[in-house]
Amino acid sequence: MEKFTYDGVTFDAHKIATENGSILLIQASHGMLGCGYFAVETADKIGDALAIVSGVKNYDDMVHAAVKKVSLAAAQRGVTVGMTGGEALLKLR
What is the value of pTM for the model shown? Predict the structure, then answer.
């Protein structure tokens, strides 16, 4: 686990190297911002707040990328498709 700061707020960040890339996740107090490796459908089944960005290689890419998918719990916290990953994280803190 690493610490990642965005807009003055510090989040827990996780990077798992795979044979062909990396799995990226930034964890806020009330939800997560994940790379395209994660499935919103799974988050919906267990009630987790999750926003997905894709085409990212690092945490900085994640906060600047547009959110592509949003779980129901994340939507209830105001996260919407099209906002940046950074905006989503701030809603999930």
Answer: 0.96
